[in-house]
Structure formats: C-alpha cells, structure tokens
Write a structure and sequence with these properties.
By secondary structure, this protein is of the alpha+beta class. It folds into two domains: 9-162, 2-Layer Sandwich (Beta-Lactamase), CATH 3.30.450.20; 167-373, 2-Layer Sandwich (Heat Shock Protein 90), CATH 3.30.565. The protein has helices at 22-30, 46-55, 94-97, 102-115, 164-201, 205-224, 243-251, 274-293, 336-348, 370-373; strands at residues 61-66, 71-74, 119-129, 134-147, 153-162, 241-242, 263-266, 271-272, 303-311, 314-322, 352-358, 361-369. The strands form three sheets. A five-stranded antiparallel β-sheet has the order 2-1-5-4-3, with helices on both faces. Helix 5 (164-201) packs antiparallel against helix 6, helix 7 (243-251) runs parallel beside helix 8 and helix 8 packs antiparallel against helix 9 (336-348). It starts with 21 loop residues before the first helix and ends with a helix.
Length: 375
Amino acid sequence: MGKMDLDTSEKSGGDKFPIGGGEMGRLVRALDWSKTSLGPISAWPAHLKAAVGLMLPAQAQIVLFWGPEFVALYNDAYAPTIGDKHPRALGRPARENWTELWDDLEPLLRSVRDTGETVFAKDRPFYIERHGYPENVNFDISYSPVWDEAGKVGGVLCIVSETTERVAAQERQRLLLRETNHRLKNLFAMIDAMISLSVRSARTPQEFAHALRGRLAALLRAKELIRPGIVGTEQATTERTTVDALVRTILQPYEDNTSRTRISVSGPPVVVGATAVTSLALALHESATNAVKYGSLSEPNGAIHIEWDVQGDDLRIEWQEADGPAIAASPHTRGFGSLLTEGSIVNQLGGKIEYDWQPNGLRLNITVPLDRLSA
C-alpha cells in the first residue's frame, strides 16, 4: 500500500474520535478505517479507544499494535523514530512496514499477546531501514498487554525511547578509557627502551642525559601526530607532510646513535594530506611500540627496514623487522594496538594491512589508496 486511504470522518461512521492528539490525531480521524482489519472507528471496542485516547496526547514515544495482524497506531512522538515508514504505517499490519526486522519484532509482540506479560529491555539493539539505508539502533522498550472486557489481550502497547546516540557515546568512552590504559602501558615500555638505548651509547652521565632528553622530545613530537587517537574521532592536523618525514618522526626516538644502522628508511617523495596524517602516524606508532615491546627493537642487535613505493593508484609500505626474538608462530590473539592499527588503515584510509610472521621478524605490508592518503 503506497499511500494512506484518507477520507472524511463520516466515512468512518460519523465518529469524531479521537479528540485532539496532534497531527497523528488528525491522521487517525482522516483515515478510512473501514478499509482496514480494525473496521470503522464507530465499531471499535471501548478498550481500543481508551488505549488510543491515552496514547495520542502522550509525550513519550508510543506505538500500539492491535489484533492478530498487529495493526499499527502511534503518536506524534513516535513518528520520527520510523522515518520514511511514516505515515504509511498507520492502520497497516506491522509486517508490511517493519519487514526488515519482523523476525526480531514479531516474537516480542507474540510473547506479550500470548502470555500477557510485559517485555522490558534497556538499550535493546534493532536493525532497521527507515531512511533508505540500513541502521543498527538501540531502544529502551516496554511492551505491555492491553486487555479487553473478556480478559484477553487485544493489543500490545509499546513505549520506547531511542538510545542509539547514548550507546554510541558509551562505546566511545569505553574505547577512550581502554586506549588511555593501553597508551600508558606503552609509554612506560618506550621510556624503558629509551633508557636502555641511551645507556648503551653514552660514555658519561651527561651524554646519557642529553641522549635521553632528545629521545623524549622526539617521542613527544611523534605523540603530537596521533592525538586524540581513538579510531573514528581523529582530528586532522593543519599541515601536509611526506611519508619520509612522517616515518622518520615516528621512529627517531628509537635510534641508538651508534655507527650501526638500527632503523633504515627508503622511498620516493609521497605527500600525506592533513586529514590522513593522524591515521597513518597512529599505525606506524603502534607498529613501532610493538617492535619495542615484543619485536626487533626489544633486542640490542634488532633492526627495522621501512621501504615504500607507489604502485598504480596505491602507496605500498613494507615494514621488515630482523634480528629480534625468534618467532615460532603467528599470535593467537590480537592486542588493542593491532586493532588500532587496522582501524586506522582499513576504516579511516580505506587501505589494507597484511601480517607475515617470519621466523627472523615480522613483515608488515600496508597499502593505502593515494587519493585517500593525500586528502
């Protein structure tokens, strides 16, 4: 049914019910209910009229599903929650307009109708298509029976409140707390590694202090590139840079200032746009941190070689570790740092990341589309 069958109240039996009720009250009065399974308003039972009369002026989001077909009636507060399903959903069986979630919704409604018991849940997830695209949403719900004079359930009164934004905010907060804890642990690990590097290369306490200050300053510069860090909430920096400058800034704190090359980088000039800097910097920083904690940079003779090149429309970065702890097999689980790295490359830059756990060290291949990298 593409449009509502609207008519005068006389065609519904001359009944002026309901009185008031805002825009939905007007639509209820105008609909030719004789063409629906509920019949004309003049023939509605008293308990249905009572439920509708209470629902329409309410400020809470309420929908009433009535009869064996769960015919829908709802108020002004509820209408926005179903998007473009309004107003065609009014007076129609719920299955017609809640098709995409009917396998989820119907058992809830039937449970209330068959048992007479209220169904209640907080932040319950639903899948819905209400604006022309799929959404995963959350609602606080209270589905209660409406009894008739014979003691049977005539319909289900659903009082709901959308909590999608609240749930998303709570998830962002949870991720922020988790990342804060993750970053704090990493910070201590990196400082410990820098102390070890500085001790190996310094001949005097003064040289040690100077080297450590330099590494801490370099670490601060690298940290500035990855604030605030939570995947999906990064804020763009104000300047463009290059892959070479970015890689060197991130890895400078881990150089040991000896004649031996511990970290080597090579590749052509490639521009990194202001929007992409944070995401790529975060991926490189997390990879360097893992190398310090578990990989080649955790060993005195360990080394990393980073090489990049342009292949077609993509930037390809190869991160090769060597002479670190022997790798017997790939890890069984992924840490939070790995999840952050993948989120930055895949979700934010539309690229891909591949891990190759070789016995002598990790090989990491990162691919990023050039159009996303230069944005």
